[in-house]
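dumping this here so i dont lose it
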């Protein structure tokens, strides 16, 4: 069972009861690093079936809570901090957003500017400028189409495609959701069966940031990082492919936007990433800081930090952080340090 499931099923209702000041004291740390993907008041069919996200009101409330209890820091401060060149204020936070979605420019950045909060946006190089649709967003669109109703003929055709991948037993929308990065080519075949024009969705909806959007964000003081080429699970990749996804995307983003710093956020998580990976990226000199999605527990690489997701609309930032402080304390008491495996 994943921690998130435990949180929802058992501890969810109790989390709000944990006094934040107490749990914060128990695990005192300098910088918390937070992330979201998207904020919107709209239904987003390419995301709707992957995860739930906060609306503008809930997002603004999160930010007001953070500003009341923590001080925002810039990416450059975090880089100096991991190098030991800067001391940060005791409750600092760094805000980040993954996947380079267009809402970053249209919805999120204006709110952050109004509140005076800096942020870093992580972009997968293949999706910048809406050149390609991420396989995860394709899955959400396919599930959306299936949920709207499907003929028995099409269903059996899709089950045929899924069957070739060893999938097909559960309800169709569930099975389509299980198609992984390595099998992503089949998603286009399923879209054809559903008469779903994914290319047209990409052209009309333009779900990702354009280069012009990014240039505008940089001019406004925001920072940009890379998020792999096309969002694989790193645990599915060889070391060589992990490095290719990381270096190529980082090199591309840094060159395209003339960045004198390198920040990288692992897509999904950093599971399956070894010491060899970090020694190679360190040698390359391309990446000053990297981020996982493992909460508050940090490992033995100074330049690699974990982040807490504030995305879940069922919980406020306060509730999520109280939970994360509690979780961190629990792990630390058990002697778990978040070390990267050999
Ligand atoms: Zn991502």
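and the seq i came up w/
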């Amino acid at each position: 069972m994943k921690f998130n499931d435990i949180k929802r099923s058992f501890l969810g209702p109790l989390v709000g009861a944990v006094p934040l000041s107490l749990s914060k004291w128990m695990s005192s740390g300098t910088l918390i690093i937070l992330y979201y993907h998207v904020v919107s008041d709209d239904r987003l069919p390419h995301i709707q079936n992957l995860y739930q996200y906060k609306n503008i009101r809930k997002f603004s409330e999160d930010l007001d809570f953070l500003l009341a209890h923590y001080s925002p820091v810039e990416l450059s401060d975090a880089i100096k901090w991991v190098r030991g060149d800067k001391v940060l204020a005791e409750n600092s936070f760094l805000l980040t957003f993954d996947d380079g979605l267009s809402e970053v420019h249209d919805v999120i950045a204006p709110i952050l500017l109004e509140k005076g909060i800096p942020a870093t946006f992580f972009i997968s190089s293949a999706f910048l400028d809406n050149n390609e649709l991420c396989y995860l967003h394709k899955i959400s669109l396919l599930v959306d189409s299936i949920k709207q109703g499907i003929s028995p003929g099409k269903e059996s055709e899709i089950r045929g495609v899924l069957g070739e991948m060893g999938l097909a037993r559960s309800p169709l929308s569930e099975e389509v959701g299980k198609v992984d990065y390595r099998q992503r080519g089949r998603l286009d075949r399923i879209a054809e069966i559903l008469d779903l024009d994914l290319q047209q969705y990409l052209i009309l909806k333009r779900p990702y940031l354009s280069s012009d959007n990014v240039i505008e964000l940089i001019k406004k003081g925001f920072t940009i990082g890379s998020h792999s080429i096309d969002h694989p699970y790193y645990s599915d990749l060889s070391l060589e492919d992990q490095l290719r996804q990381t270096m190529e995307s980082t090199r591309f983003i840094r060159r395209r936007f003339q960045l004198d710093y390198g920040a990288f956020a692992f897509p999904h998580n950093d599971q399956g990433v070894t010491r060899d990976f970090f020694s190679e990226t360190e040698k390359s000199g391309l990446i000053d800081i990297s981020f996982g999605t493992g909460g508050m527990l940090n490992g033995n690489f100074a330049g690699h930090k974990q982040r807490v997701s504030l995305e879940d609309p069922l919980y406020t930032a306060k509730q999520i952080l109280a939970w994360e402080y509690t979780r961190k304390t629990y792990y630390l008491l058990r002697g778990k340090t978040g070390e990267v495996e050999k």
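The chain has a mean pLDDT of 90.
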